[in-house]
Design goal:
alpha/beta; 19 strands; binds nicotinamide-adenine-dinucleotide
Length: 469
């Protein structure tokens, strides 16, 4: 992987109307490899001019009907070709994913990139299987319900799944005839660029897919506020999502938001301890805890609490933190210095709140100067502590002791978020009760809270999501 990475040409331009473009302003921003702290590329920083050009162009292409006017069967073939091309370029995409955000390269290679191809394939295959509907009519006329493209959709994505989240948004939008303008997170421009390049070879008319790179404040806001954009699909933090919702609603654009979480994992006395520990380690620390569905609070009933904390501490000793391209690495670096600072700040907060540090708590030294943090577990925490309530978005979790299932359920639901939740139990009664009474969009039984199927509706409740799944 190291040799392949050295040979990789790192992408640095926007793609508008099928052409690569640098911003008129000449400004750039640095894409940093979190495993080394080194600059991978200086990427063009788009401004109003480029975003407006991308949107106007997408609008013209949409109005011309060169894509939306194609038959479902034709669109299906183009999307299937795209899925094949993603797999042909699996190594390059996995490398970009890993270099950009520090994910162990084999995770990207085995999971994220095949998942991206899979989602294009799934939407392609849906195109000739989803029929129009005929509604029974009180007037005895023929009432037909037909799906039509929305128009130009703006997609704004976060840094933690550089290929998977863009693919989840791009695939349905393109499949149903929309034109797309995507703005990936500044930290991870590589995969979206490579995807743009692959899309340009799959047979889409020029301008159906456009990529603009740069800051949320400039590029994101221009895209959100453009009257030529019919809908916005956003994944990211709650604060930004709420601003986007206000802007979209004020101009009656469709909006879909997927945001943060503080996902609970309940461990009941009757859980299989080994299984509970394994799924908890996976939930909280893999992907460096940087998954919106990661679990960061373990709610554990009194009878198993001490055994669980002890077994977690033991299991955490064998988690290997390291360079994302090295074999044997379980957990790569934190994505950026800013995120590392935030994780360390919360570790300080946990200690000052009086939680007991069980494992981790500090930096890990590796052979390169990256942002390496030891997976960190607190015990003896309270539900009211900030580490129990606020999204940290790093490999930092805590354990809260409760008396019984009823107390665990109440605590799990006592949060402004509602993305994912899990329970470890051998009791069918509690598992079924939790599935019905958890206030999360996705509920897992004896599984990590993170890890989803791309063809199953994804989304949360309460503060975690807004709009359709
Ligand atoms: P973020 O909100 O900072 O940024 C997300 C995207 O929005 C980026 O592309 C950013 O440039 C852009 N943006 C920032 N300000 C903007 C503005 N004013 N107008 C328009 N766009 C703007 O989030 P992040 O740090 O990239 O990602 C981490 C967050 O994402 C966490 O809260 C995590 O839980 C959440 N997340 C949620 C899901 C989900 O499906 N629910 C999945 C992954 C990540």
């Amino acid at each position: 992987w190291q040799n392949k990475a050295a040979a990789l040409q790192f992408p640095d331009q926007a793609v508008i109307d099928g052409k690569r473009r640098s911003a008129q302003s000449g400004q750039t921003f640095a894409a940093i490899n979190p495993a080394t702290g080194q600059c991978l590329a200086n990427v063009t920083a788009c401004g109003d001019e480029e975003v407006n050009a991308a949107v106007s162009n997408a609008r013209q292409v949409f109005e011309a009907g060169t894509w939306s006017g194609r038959s479902p069967g034709e669109r299906k073939q183009v999307l299937l070709r795209l899925a094949d091309l993603i797999m042909v370029n699996c190594e390059e995409l996995a490398l970009l994913d890993s270099l950009n955000m520090g994910k162990p390269v084999m995770d990207a290679y085995n999971i994220d990139v095949p998942g991206a191809a899979g989602v294009f394939r799934w939407y392609a295959e849906s195109l000739d299987k989803l029929y129009d509907q005929i509604a029974p009519s009180a007037q005895n006329v023929l009432a037909t319900i037909t799906r039509e493209a929305l128009g130009v959709v703006g997609l704004i994505t976060p840094w933690n799944f550089p290929i998977a989240i863009p693919a989840w948004k791009i695939a349905p939008a393109l499949a149903y005839g929309n034109c797309v303008v995507i703005k990936p997170a500044e930290l991870v421009p590589g995969c979206a660029w490579a995807l743009a390049e692959i899309i340009s070879r799959a047979g889409f008319p020029a301008g159906v897919f456009n990529l603009v790179m740069g800051s949320g404040r400039v590029v994101g806001e221009v895209l959100v506020n453009s009257p030529k954009v019919d809908g916005i699909s956003f994944t990211g933090s709650v604060g930004v999502g709420r601003q986007i919702a206000v802007s979209c609603v004020s101009r009656q654009a469709k909006v879909q938001l997927e945001m943060g979480g503080k996902n609970p994992q309940i461990i009941l006395d009757d859980a299989d301890l080994k299984q509970a520990v394994e799924l908890s380690v996976q939930s909280a620390f893999y992907s460096t805890g940087q998954r919106c569905t990661a679990s960061s609070r373990f709610i554990v009933t009194a009878g198993i609490h001490d055994k669980f904390v002890e077994a977690m501490a033991e299991r955490m000793k064998s988690i290997k933190v390291g360079h994302a391209l090295h074999s044997g690495t379980d957990i790569g670096p934190v994505v950026s210095q800013a995120q590392l600072d935030q994780d360390l700040k919360y570790i300080d907060i946990g200690q000052s709140e009086g939680a007991r540090l069980v494992s981790g708590g500090g930096l890990v030294t590796c052979d390169t100067e990256g942002y390496y943090l030891a997976p960190t577990l607190f015990a003896d925490s309270e539900a009211a502590m900030r580490i129990s309530r606020e999204e940290i978005f790093g490999p930092v979790a805590n354990v809260v002791r409760v008396a019984d299932y009823e107390a665990a359920l109440a605590m799990a639901n006592d949060t402004e978020f509602g993305l994912s939740a899990g329970i470890a139990t051998t009791s069918l009664k509690y598992a079924n009760h939790f599935k019905r009474h958890s206030q999360a969009g996705m509920v897992m039984v004896n599984l990590p809270t993170a890890g989803v199927d791309y063809h199953v509706p994804f989304g949360g409740r309460k503060g975690s999501s807004y709009g359709s799944r």
